[in-house]
Amino acid sequence: MNSKKEILIVEDSMTQALKLESILKRHDYQVAVARNGIEGLSYLKDRLPDLVISDIIMPGMDGYELCKHIKSSDRLKGIPVILLTALSDTEDVIKALECKANNFLTKPYDENLLVSRINNTLLNHGLRKSETTDTAGEAGCAEFFFAGKKHCITSDRAQIADLLFSTYENAIQKNRELEEANQKLVVMQRKLEKDIVDLERAEDKLQNQKELLDNILFHIPHLVFWKNRQSIYLGCNNSFAKVVKLSSPKNIIGKTDYDLGWKRKESDFYLQFDKKVMDGDKPILNIEKSKVKTDGTVTNFLTSNVPLRDVNGNVFGILGIYTDITEQVRAKEELVRAKEDAESANIAKSEFLANMSHEIRTPMNGIIGMTGLLLDSRLTPEQLDYAETIRNSSDALLAIINDILDFSKLETGKFELENIDLNIRTVIEEVTDLLATEAYDKGLKFTSLVDHKVPSLLVGDPGRLRQILMNLVGNGIKFTEKGEVVVHAKIKEETDTSVTIYFSVTDTGIGISQEKKYNLFQSFTQIDASTTRRYGGTGLGLAISKRIADMMGGQIGVESRKGKGSTFWFTAVFRKQSAALDIPHTPVKKPVKPVVPPRNLAEDKKQKIRILLTEDNFVNQKVALKIIEKDGHHVDVANNGREAIKALEADHYDLVLMDILMPEMDGFEATAEIRNPMSAVRNHDIPIIAMTAYAMKGDRKKCLEAGMNDYISKPVRPQELLSKIDIWTGKGKEDYSPTSDQAQDQEQPPAQKNSSCKTDKRSPVDIEKAIEQVMGDKDFLKELLQLFVKNLPEQIEALKTALAGGDAQELSRIAHTLKGSSANLRVNGINDVALRLEQIGKKGNLEEARPALAELVDEFIRLKEYIDKIDD
Questions:
Q1: Per residue in 114-155, pLDDT tens?
Q2: What single string gives the DSSP state of each residue in 820-868?
Q3: CB-count exposure of residue 59 (10 Å: 0-12, 13-18, 19+)
Q4: For residue 99, which of 142, 67, 63 has the smallest C-alpha distance?
Q5: Which residue has the higher pLDDT, 870 or 191?
Q6: 297 by DSSP, 3-state: which?
Q7: Contact at 8 Å (CB) between 821 and 624?
Q8: How far apart are CA 262 and CA 868, in angstroms?
């Protein structure tokens, strides 16, 4: 049998009811809940709980009315009632007595107080059941005055005692709260006292800092002053007071510049300058000023003026700091004069060297020329040896004289650069040809590498470029006993009109220690005396190379370790030739004599071949353009068949690359118009290569029957496309048959297999194949992917519109276009979904398109996140 006490909670607030229920159950009471007084009476018809806890303010029947009904019922009047109240008015106590409530509790209540009150009420009720009822109290009415009014109370003494005790307990609780508040006030008072002590200490510290600042300010040699908004002096330091002949800095307070003995114009200038600083609300720093004294001497000052601000940030004055720099100015002037004298002497020396170099070159040319004639005559072996020695010595001497002459021109400012057309690869080939024998004689591997992105046709000074390369490569060979010397050229920066090329010469020679690198590019220096004795040289070559690199808009430097070889590098800026085309060049690695591929006749021919690319998809356009232009061809773009017809009417082309599905006029219609002898195109027999997203069985035959010459499937493979172009623009096209092509018709394209299955979660982009697709240009690939992602939402919306309108044909066309561009970029997931949507559109079963579109959106989000993470 359950012995738990049962309590009925009457509360219209579910939050308060749940809170009470939770507390009571935690203390092992049985609990029932009624939402108002009427519902509470309904509950009491069938049950007699041990206690009723009721809120007072409730709709329908409040707590007072509920209590009156309980106490007026012979069956219920024995149930104790506790009222919940805020006790905001003394009338609450009287009303509780009048309705014969046994107890009340103020809100918000403490859990321990609530439980204690319930326990006491139940205990008192149990005790009073055994007591004799005061019949006088039941029969009569006790009259008394309370809070200025007369009241008649019919409650018995026990009820009155309960109410009084509960009121007392509430008073104790309030007193406890007051004590807690008082303790908090004590803590706050102590904190305040501490804050006052801290503030006093801070004021003492601030005063000490102020005294220190004043001490510094009044003894520094700089002239310091400060004024208010009206340019009236508020103070100054000792140095300024001495300059204006005041016995104490305090004497300046209240004066203006007109009171300090300046000339009228000076004072006017100072006031205007003050106004400029304060009105401009920004400092004017490090301005040089000069002042002529009465004795004619000049004093120079470096002035700084700063606006002063109050706590609100408003400008209220100006601070001025003047530094006497007369001695520094005088020293600077003397230094400038000394520099000018030194430069004059240096120019005179350089001009002398230049003249001497010219004078020496004349007899040197005679010696070299006559030695050459002597070597061609009949000489004894001994005479031949003597003559060879004379020629070698003469060549070495002439090289030294040339270096001195170039250096002299640089020193006198007479060294100028040419700006003529040049071929980078030809220059490098000339250098390597000249020095290859020397490398071979030492048993060195000699290699040149020219990046395929480097354009060949530029504008600059080929002679000076050759001079730097000869110097660096010659040094590399000279200082390397075994191993290799490698020349490398690649693009550092590029714009529409210019290109900065990075050249490097790497050797496996003696290397250079860190502490001796600083001597390398200085005039007339070698890294140490032993180097000069062993290898010779004037020490001018690198200095001249540095000057030339500077004049060519670049830099020069070295990376090296002692005994580990060196890499000398330099950069130079060249203009692009207006008609130049970037032709890819495969880097060549060849021992002994390097080969730097120049533009040959075949490449020159490529420049004359004109190709018309007919493609409506912008991404596919850019991919095809990259492949074709990199191979050196000229290519124009038509966005559809109609534009292609207009282009072929207006100009001559050698080849047409024709997409199949395009708006306005597709590839078949355009081909029919080209082959029509009545059309206005210039060449009805022009080779046409079809391009489409995949090759289904029979598509090749359909294209050939339509008048096209050949067929290539998308995604376009660079080598296959270039091979087709070479065939149809070369001599071998007469013997070529498209049916002999290795790429035969397929039952279905690889991408179409398992197209009914969902795309897997592999990488959104087959990055290796995608980079290969754009000829290894990762930056270009990222640009295309970003463009693809940018346009994809518009294509998705177009697919949704076609689906909503029930247009299966349009759905298939848009999906076909998306399939082609995604295939070119190797975007796996989107390509698979686009292919599936194209097939759905062809079948006309549009219900299958909805989940496919949702999957396409998911793939779009995956692709966008992937592109953001691609390493730049």
A1: 888 888 888 877 766 655 444 444 446 655 555 556 666 676
A2: HHHHHTTBHHHHHHHHHHHHHHHHT-GGGHHHHHHHHHHHHHHHHHHHH
A3: exposed
A4: 67
A5: 191
A6: coil
A7: no
A8: 68
